[in-house]
Amino acid sequence: MVRASTAVTIGVGATAAVVAAALVQALGNSPVGKALTAAVPAEYRTLIEEAGKTCPEVSPNLLAALLQQESGFNPKARSPVGAQGIAQFMPSTWEKHGIDGNGDGRRDVWDPEDAIPSSAKYLCSLAADVKDVPGDRQHNMLAAYNAGPGAVRKYGGVPPYKETRNYVRAISALADHNPGGGAPAPEQAAIVVRAAREMLGTPYSWGGGNANGPSTGTCCSPNGSSGASVVGFDCSGLTLYAYAQAGIPLPRTAAQQYAATEPVKPGDVRPGDLVFYGRTPAGIHHVGIYVGDGWMIDAPRPGLKVRYSPMDTMPDLFGVGRPKPSKSKEI
Fold first, then answer.
1. Do 172 and 139 touch, CB atoms closer than 8 A?
2. Structure confidence by residue, pLDDT tens digits, 163-193
3. How many other C-beta atoms are found inside a 10 Å radius of the C-beta of residue 95?
4. Residue 167, class by beta-carbon neighbours within 10 Å (0-12 exposed, 13-18 middle, 19+ buried)?
5. How far is it, in rounded angstroms, from Cα 108 to Cα 88?
6. Of 181, 190, 167, 168, nearest in space to 324 by CA
7. Among 183, 307, 315, 298, which residue's Cα sits nearest to residue 242?
8. pTM
């Protein structure tokens, strides 16, 4: 975020690996498709591929990962601290670095045709600003995007802020084609559960929530409810956020999150695992975070808040998944 700081059939014959392979095939062989098994919205692929050539430190893979991490590709996202749009620019940063990417005479932070190339341009300016700092240049650039170049220069690399280190680790994992970021170690699973518990009572917002916390959502849910004026989480926004606090990136939707997990046998379920609901892999419509004794934390539906729910809260429990192991680099 450009700011001051800040799955599921285990049992209908389709495995997580099969679903993941289908998603990759659907995305084709573009650089973005290879970067993320989570679907990049078709309307943004060309923008990302072009903007991802702005400078050597920025690639289409990395830019796509950053946008997913920032907003889940939601052009209407607004964070509680005021960051705006698909790339989550703070107004002051946009005023200085926003460009008219589509040549329509306006610099509009809410327009992905402006915000995506602006994000790439800003990343490149940050890369130049911290080019003499020791360490991985992309990591330093991402840290500067999150915490500011001054912090990167002060600490001689990625600063020792938990949020920033998780941010850099998560985006790097996504960009390196590790959409699940790795099966959580016990201490990471504890972080996931704790992060979810801290959000108990947060309003449900359709399309709301990202790796940085609650946000306004979009319109509209199947029953017509809009999250555009509600700061909160939908079910997969909550799980994405909680896992991001442990440095593990997840795709944005429940079905995409299922595709990035491996099935967990009933006797092996442990706190932090993801609980999925639906009739088919493509029809996964809900996800929660298992906390033990048959309970989970989830963002249930419009009008309710993040809460504890029994696993049998819905009749179509599809199974439990755990993010796939990966070999993401340590930050």
1. yes
2. 898 888 878 877 764 444 456 777 888 999 9
3. 11
4. buried
5. 12
6. 181
7. 298
8. 0.57
